[in-house]
Amino acid sequence: MLRLLLSALTIACLFTACQPSDSSTTEKVETGLAPAAAPAPSPKELDPAALSILNRALKAHGSQRLSKVNFGFTFRGSQFEFITENEKEIYKSSYEKEGKAYNDRIEGGIFHRLIDNASQTLNEKEAYSGFETLNSVIYFATLPHKLRDPAVNLYAAGTATIKGKAYDMLRVNFDEEGGGVDHDDNFLYWINQETNRIDYLAYDYKTNKGGVRFRSAFNPRVVAGVLFQDYVNYKAPLGTPLADLPGLFEKGKLEELSIIATEGVMQLD
User: Fold this and answer.
1) Each residue's pLDDT tens digit, 14-48
2) Relative orientation angle of helices 124-141 and 8-15, to the nearest 10 degrees
3) To the nearest whole percent, how much of the chain has pLDDT over 70?
């Protein structure tokens, strides 16, 4: 298969942690450009309290199983697969567009596309867009799996109460070096102190005039030992502090944008 090599900037994004940046054309597939598969956990020093919170969440979500079990699911009519072969992660998607069969693949940080089984030579914009969509869907479907990627920084951000439940707050940002074109985005995760699951997450971004998003998890289910969740995606006014979003959510002051749902999740042979 023909491999498409992107520009140095895009390559940096492919091999490290790139962050969601709302796309006016895909609304981040309302998922976002997210960290790509990294070769190994970060060796840098991390906030011990934050790392403890993350490790509890990784265990609660069954993230360790993602290296042992392959999964498939449907997202907005397209089929996706998350596969591990020889300790390498492979992302796949298949869908129809304008009467043609598309098969996209990310392997070794490189994006490939077949149309009607014919390998495609893509320009940089097409390759980056295809990578963004496929990588984003897999990333958010498998949270918090990629929060140990090398460019990720973790910080314990205190506690909060949302709808009567207690949460640990985990703040995430990214190194400029290796952090991708959207390294200055910020994330906040609310991890349930009782279940250690991510019930809520929020982020801000600066591309396409910027924005603030808040997501509320629903429909949790465990498949082959891995927790999968869907999300209601909300919009907040530009500049709203991420920590203020739960309060606005409880008061019904956030604008609902979309539903992020992974359907028909199954273990693959």
Assistant:
1) 333 334 434 333 344 444 444 444 444 445 688 89
2) 10
3) 80
CA-CA-CA-CA dihedral for 64, 66, 67, 73, to nearest 10: 180
Residue 8's pLDDT is what? 31
Average pLDDT of the segment spanning 145-173: 94
**3-class secondary structure for the chain?**
CCCCCCCHHHHHHHHCCCCCCCCCCCHHHHCCCCCCCCCCCCCCCCCHHHHHHHHHHHHHCCHHHHHCCEEEEEECCEEEEEEEECCEEEEEEEEEECCEEEEEEEECCEEEEEECCEECCCCHHHHHHHHHHHHHHHHHHCCCHHHHCCCEEEEEEEEEEECCEEEEEEEEEECCCCCCCCCCCEEEEEEECCCCCEEEEEEEECHHHCEEEEEEEEEEEEECCEEEEEEEEEEECCCCCHHHHHHHHHCCCCEEEEEECCEEEEEEC
pTM for the model stands at: 0.81
